[in-house]
Amino acid sequence: MKVKFLYVVFTMMLLVAPTVMAQSVYDYEYNSQKKNASITFRNSSDYTMTLKIIHSFGGLYTTVSLPAHSSRAVSFSKSGTFKLKIKATPRYGQSSYHDGGKFSVTSTETEWTEGEMTFRMSMYGSGLGPSISAKEFESDK
Asked: Distance between CA 62 and CA 47 in Å, rounded?
C-alpha cells in the first residue's frame, strides 16, 4: 500500500511540475512586457482646455481637448521630454494661451511614469504659466 501511494504521488508530481513550469515561463514572458508611461490630465475649471504636447526637439506628439471638469489619460511608449502649451477657453469670451513648461516621462521595461497634472483657471489669475500668443500656441516647436 505504501509503495502504491508513493507511486501515485510521484506520478502526480510528474504531471503537475511541467504545468507549473510552463505557467512560470508564461508569467515571465507575458507579465514582464514593457508598460507605457501614462499621465492623466485633469481640468478642474469651468474653462475648456486644449493641451498641445510637443516633443522637446520639435514636432507635435498629441493634442488633448479637456472640456470643463474632465480628465484624459495620455500614453507615452518612449521615454522623453515634452513641452506643454495650453489654450484656455471660457464659455463666453476670448481664449488665453500659456506656456505650460516642460515635463519628462520614463517608459522602459523596468520603469515607467504614472502621473497626473491638474489645470485650474480662475478669474483672479490663471496659474497656467506665462502667457504666449495664439501664433506661438499654433506652432509645433
From this structure: 20
H or E segment and range at residue 22: helix 2-31
90-97: long-range pairs with CB below 8 Å, 24+? 90/46, 90/47, 91/46, 91/47, 95/134, 96/126, 96/128, 96/131, 97/131, 97/132, 97/133, 97/134, 97/136, 97/137
DSSP letter at 75 equals E
- pTM here is 0.73
Sign of CA dihedral 5, 6, 12, 15: negative
Residue type, 20: V
Quote the cell numbers at residue 72. Answer: 484624459
Q: Which region holds residue 59: left if phi is over 0, alpha if psi is between -120 and 50, else beta?
A: left
- Between CA 103 and CA 86 the distance in angstroms is 14
pLDDT tens per residue across all 141 residues of the chain:
444 444 444 444 444 444 444 444 445 555 556 689 999 999 999 999 999 999 998 899 999 999 999 999 999 999 999 999 999 999 888 999 999 999 999 999 899 999 999 988 766 656 778 899 999 999 998
